[in-house]
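PROTEIN DATA CARD
Card holder: Peroxiredoxin
Chain length: 255
Origin: Sphingomonas ginsenosidimutans
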Amino acid sequence: MPRSYAFHARPASRAPVHRWRAWNPCTPGSFTRPARPATMASMETIAAPAAPAFDWNALFDGFVGRLRQSGAGLDAPKLYDRFEPFALPDSRGRYVDIADRLAEGPVVLSFMRGGFCPYCRGELQAWHEAIPRLEAVGGHFVAVSGEIGGRAEETRCGLAPNAEMLCDVDHGLALSLGLAHPMGAELHASYRAHGLDLADIYGDSGMLLPIPASFVIDSGGIVRYAFVEPDFRVRPDPAVVIAVVEACGPVNVPF
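Structure generated from the sequence above:
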């Protein structure tokens, strides 16, 4: 089984905190602390407890469970399938034909949700460090995101400037590969309530999300590695993927 690893969001308890210097009346130049009104002291005794933190993991577990029940990702390309040729604009507005990249060697094709996703950011950062090793064995890294309006380029520049990012408008390519599925009203509403408008990010209804997936496609257009996981919190280890690319060797079959 291919080795994988998960990127975990930083728990709230580990979030950075401001460390304020304690007030000390003996410090030269310190202010005189004003007396607190009695009403303020009484209010402190009846203050409502802090609201519990939103349980994103429980929400994500339910979402992933529904994806698995629906068979999401089962129709995606599999090992030794021929990957159908495609062309998409890159994050800088230039059309890229995947056949041109495959003519240069194997391609690692990675479908991502976008820069708003901490797991996608973690994966891109890992690939930023791994791309030199990938290129040393003749491979090329291509990420695919449905982000529009310059967001895909912002994601690329901010996390992996040495990567190539393609823009999958309306998730057209992901849909054709069985990699885009409805997120459901609960997850959509929770994202909106926390300020994340996927309709604005993707330029569509905002109700679809791509399933992160990674493929190694050899220069003959054959899938040599396929990692399709409905749980978007789990991503492949770049070292494992690079080992597959290295094992591909030169292939002279036309795409």
